[in-house]
Amino acid sequence: MSRDIAKTLREIARGRRSFIVLAVPRLAGKTTVLRAVLAERPASTPVVTVAEDGQELDQLVSKSAGGYLVIPEIAPSAAMPGYIWGADVRRVFKAAKEGVALAATLHADGPDDAFAQICKGCGVPDAEASKIGFAVHLRSIGRWEEPTRRVVQSVHAIDRVEGGKPKGRLLYRWDEGRDEFIKGDGAGSGQAGRA
């Protein structure tokens, strides 16, 4: 990732903004990037993880006030603790009140696919899905089992969700042919988008 992308991700965490990290293959670095972003939050900001810190949603939301409530992965199969789908995802999005930011990973090929899974696959209403302010899309190069490289494919600021589709701005994208990161139209100010 470029320094500009790293700065934007740092600003997301410091501003306690909700975000998702997505990629299609396993081992693309979704959890690693999510944890790296969360590590940049203010020191006093709590991070509470579904399953890791308990199952009782009201308690998790209360503990995460002023900080992050983390979904380890939005996935139809409960392969690991904290991998949730459907009604459980709806409950988390509905329960995340003002002052609680969400952070999650999922297997998706871009923001449109990610929000289709969140809204259509899990049934999260647009207004609640609109809590997500940023989508970080990763790409794994080479065989998924042994990638030779991982890159941030794109970073999008999400302004709102309508009809299960994200509406927002491209902040950064990776130009594979030139092997460089390009600022999108939404990154002109150098700011990390909306609060």
What labels would you give this structure?
195 residues; alpha/beta; Rossmann fold; nine-stranded mixed sheet; 6 helices; 27% helix; globular; disordered C terminus
Overview of this protein structure:
The chain is α/β, with parallel strands linked by helices. It has a single domain, classed as P-loop containing nucleotide triphosphate hydrolases (Rossmann fold), CATH 3.40.50. It has six helices and nine strands. Strands 1, 2, 3, 4, 5, 6, 7, 8 and 9 form a nine-stranded mixed β-sheet that branches. It is globular and about 50 Å long. Residues 189-195 have low confidence and may be disordered.
Break the fold down into its secondary structure elements and pairings.
Layout: H1 3-14, E1 19-23, H2 30-38, E2 47-49, H3 57-63, E3 68-74, E4 83-84, H4 87-95, E5 101-107, H5 111-121, H6 126-129, E6 134-141, E7 149-162, E8 165-175, E9 180-183
Q: What percent of residues adopt helix (DSSP H or I)?
A: 25-40%
Can you give the mean pLDDT? 87
The CATH class: Alpha Beta
How large a portion of the residues is in β-strands, by DSSP E? 25-35%
Going by CATH, the architecture would be 3-Layer(aba) Sandwich
Shape: globular
Structural class, by secondary structure, is alpha/beta
What is the CATH topology descriptor?
Rossmann fold
Largest sheet: 9 strands, mixed
Task: Provide the gyration radius in Å.
Answer: 16 Å
In whole angstroms, the N-to-C terminal distance is 23 Å
